[in-house]
Specification:
4 domains; five-stranded antiparallel beta sheet; alpha+beta; about 400 residues; 16 helices
Length: about 400
Amino acid sequence: MATPQTPYDAVLHAARDVTRLDTALDAEMLGAALLGSVYAVAETDRDAAVREFVAGFLAATSRRRTAAARTIRSVFAALVPDAEGAARVRPGTLAPAWSEQLGRVHLTGTWSYGDVYGDQTSYLATFAYDDAAGGPEHALVALVDHNIGITKDVFVGGPAERIVGQVRELVATDELTWFREEDPARMRGEVGRHLAITDGLGELPAEGSLATDRALAGARLALLPLPAPGTVRDARPLSGDERTELVRAFLASPEAARFALDPSDDAGLASLHFCLSLLLDHAASFPDADPLRWSPTVAELFLLDWVHRRAVLDMDDAAMLPRVLRGWAAYAARRKGLPAAASARTDTAIEEMVPEFARLYSTGERRSPATAAVAQLMADGVDPDDPAALDAWIEANRHRLADEGA
């Protein structure tokens, strides 16, 4: 066979056996996989790229009369109904019997589950075709990663009952996870807003079925009710007054007392409040900002990466920071109502990170150029807030700074 001349020809060739599939679900999964290649290589808004591709495909194949061409057009129109020309697509007289069931499903259940820390939440919805001839009941699973603020993976498959059962069984044996029925509007809102961020990524997560299942997942999400205005979680960082109130509550807590966070000297108090400000700044840097969400993973991101890139610590700060983090994490766990085992796991993880934190502090290998420059200023006894001293230091170190920037 001749090599396909255009991407549209390549799709028609890949879908040449679509009419031999057994169900509408099989066809929708094939169509989603084909569109997944477009989603994966798009450089900007991936969802828009898929929609534009489908519009172009429908226009370019409007005169094709083979059963396979007419059927894959119907599949794409069902998966991306807002693409230009999708509403005008008709299956044709030679289409498989199941073609009338494309996209015609209804919701049968929604749940969510995740870790007690709040690092990740998975949303699970099950769907059935209005006519059983369309295919079996199936499930959509979407994984939202709150540490990077994206929908990290989506999966559509079945049988739905088996998938729900596997999740229930998995969660039942792990005290650090939870499972509950979910409001379908909340699922659509949370998965949708994080998926919009995923669609704009320059590089997709390497593992999973995100690209191949994205179109079908989007079609199923669109069937869920929209969240009511004002019900989507407000993830804004704390205001200055809110930060002050939270710090005051922490310093009066039993956790602050347990970790002896009550220095009596001015230098110790300054270090304590500086360390607390770093914890709050780090929490505010997350897309889903929450100053009380601390897990072993979040603690590692803070203690072994973020703080070295974003802050300049003196020796007193570096000595105090792990202890402040342990106290704050314990306080946050109590405020969140986490199991004792969850709090203990975070505390142990922080203790185990201290040697590596100390090494990174000593080497400065993870400092950003700006942080490294400020650290050198301080080491040379220069006050960064003194313009004259700063200008003199820059002039004296001009050649070295130029060499480092080269």
